[in-house]
Amino acid sequence: MINFAPMDFIVDAAIRAVKALYNTDINATDITLQQTRKEFEGQVTIVTFPFVKLSRKSPEQTGTEIGEFLLNELADVSAFNVIKGFLNISISDEYWIGQLYNQIARPEFGVYPPKDEKVMVEYSSPNTNKPLHLGHIRNNLLGYSVAEILKANGYEVIKANLVNDRGIHICKSMLAWQLFGNGETPESSGLKGDHLVGKYYVVFDKEYKKQIDELKALGQTEEEAKKNAPLIIQAQQMLEQWEAGDVAVIDLWKTMNSWVYAGFAETYKKLGVDFDQYYYESDTYLLGKDIIDEGLAKSVFFKKEDGSVWIDLTAEGLDQKLVLRSNGTSVYITQDVGTAQLKYSQYHMDKSIYVVGNEQDYHFKVLFLILKKLGKSWAPGLFHLSYGMVDLPSGKMKSREGTVVDADDLMEEMEQTAKTHTEALGKVNSFGETEKEQLYHTIGMGALKYFLLKVEPKKRLLFDPAESIDFQGHTGPFIQYTHARIRSVLNKAGYTSGEASTDIKQLDALERELILALNQFPEAIMQAARDYSPAVIANYVYELAKTYNKFYQDKAILKDEVPADVRQFRLTLSAAAAKIIKRSMSLLGIMVPERM
RNA sequence: GCACUCGUAGCUCAAUUGGAUAGAGCAUCUGACUACGGAUCAGAAGGUUAGGGGUUCGACUCCCUUCGAGUGCACCA
User: A575 vs A189, A255, A491, A517, CA distance in Å?
Assistant: First the structure.
């Protein structure tokens, strides 16, 4: 059996120590256990300041008393030292060696047993009027990674994509294509479908601006001109026709959306993300009205004289929020109420995560509050995974000003950079062409994904296109390289997994440090899930790779002077490191190569 | 104006959730047995954690306040 809290035996003993010494009952949560800092002797540290009140003795004395107790009680505790309020405990090398062979080296290590709980992770959720950009990449990578992390924690996960396929924005592209497109198609133009549609979105905007200027020249104010420009009026008409089911408009809409979907599919594939369930706003945009009725009956909502329906959230520190227009049609939040219900009715999931940018913080606060007030039993399981915008040095990305970092372009560039780096090192000259292409993709995407995922989701991210993403230091390729190098050693040694344990009894400091790092993998997985933060995994695996590299640099494995049992032991240690690096990276959606 | 989020080395990020002398990478400088793979490793230098006040054994972390940045505050989505 894999033990997911290997240090619990220390906690238990500490509780007994406090009981025996100070006759007080404490809980496991009262004990702060942390890894001992490298500059001190020991591997596990108990913070003993909180017990000083109970012992009425100095921190040093208290620590010493508890230390003595642990030393007597636990066979695996080999020594301790006390510095101020910190009790540093040394655990025997036999324990750590056993931990490696019996826990860490096993395939199930870090795979939590099924929880019998379902989570839906909604992410990506693109508009169908333009191609994906860097902001979408962050969204996609976050969503995918969080889904993988939740799976590793034993959840059943449904990855959902709510496609915003209707509305004025797509009508703008459609109209511009109709007026200026001359029947251009992805085939005829050689453009990827989403880029083609995006091109006409830009055309619309350009022509629209022209009309605005003309109207202003005729004496209209900016505001008037924006409202009166023929193009915007036409686009609005088109939307009405769409809603009325006009066959020609629907046909055009279907055609152009199909172009976009083909383009998205390509981008998603390259990004390495996927979905179990697609929702389309064209199907869901009318949902939610019946729930508004339900809420009216329960007096969660109230109706104004003009017929519009509202919810009053002033008691919660928010405002009054409209949920139904006076003409009876629904608004954005109404749809989301309906879609949330639809999702739940379909899957009965315990949790539902929305991966959406932080500009919608308020929206989700209101949405979740509405569902709670409606008494939905599943409302507490809703969570908005809010992430920061990706900014350029010049500020926000603006599609109209052409400062958007296109997703396809960026991925292409990353592969090119990977190619340049790799060729300069000249280590893979024996690779075939397709093998090389794959490798460049793996490394380029590794650099990009790691760059985006190592930052805490809620923080905003600065991306400087002029400064290429690093391949050295705290980066994806650094970790990939560590993996490739371990694999190389293992291959050279002809190592196969599951080889017999050795009777090694003592550890070198670097070996011990490495086992400790490996041992923290399950905790990192758990913390990443608790915080919905791939950054936890990213930083963990970096630390691990660094620890391995330090070990590797200093300790020979295959050299002649290394005794057979030590060699065998270090191979097991290396194999475990490679495995956990690979698994960690896969939680980030990053592949690791065998050679690079 | 109101609300939310953020502010850590020149730059990009950490800090075991309130614990020890705030750690990494990049950039700069110095070094590594003729490389079990140098996309590596060792070292130097770099900090009043935006400023001020408070809470306590202890604060980057919690509270108040000032400053700065971002976002939101539509019968748009």
Answer: 50, 51, 10, 14
> Which of A's residues 280-309 have CB atoms within 7 A of nucleic strand B?
281, 285, 304, 306, 308
Tell me which fold the domain A8-91 belongs to: Gyrase A; domain 2 (3.30.1360)
**Domain coordinates of chain A in residue numbers?**
8-91, 167-273, 407-587
What's the CA gap between A263 and A185, in Å, rounded? 13
- In CATH, A407-587 is 1.10.730.10: yes
Q: Which two tokens stand for residue A195?
A: 């880029």
For A334-350, what is the mean pLDDT? Answer: 96
Specify whether the CB–CB gap between A87 and A66 falls below 8 A: yes
Pairing of strands A309-312, A302-303: antiparallel
> What strands lie across the sheet with A309-312, from one edge to the other?
A302-303, A309-312, A320-324
pLDDT score of A421 more than 80:
yes
Place of tokens 């959306």: A257
Pairing state between β A44-47 and A302-303: unpaired
Supply the mean pLDDT for chain A: 93
pLDDT at residue A499 tops 80: no
Note the helical H segments in A100-229.
Answer: 134-152, 168-180, 186-189, 193-217, 222-228
The identity of residue A266, as a single letter, is: E
Count other C-beta atoms under 10 Å from residue A395's C-beta: 10
What is the ipTM score, two decimals?
0.95
Instruction: For residue A19, say whether its CB is under 7 Å from any atom of strand B.
Output: no
- Whether nucleic acid strand B comes within 7 Å of the CB of A79, the answer is no
pLDDT of residue A498: 66
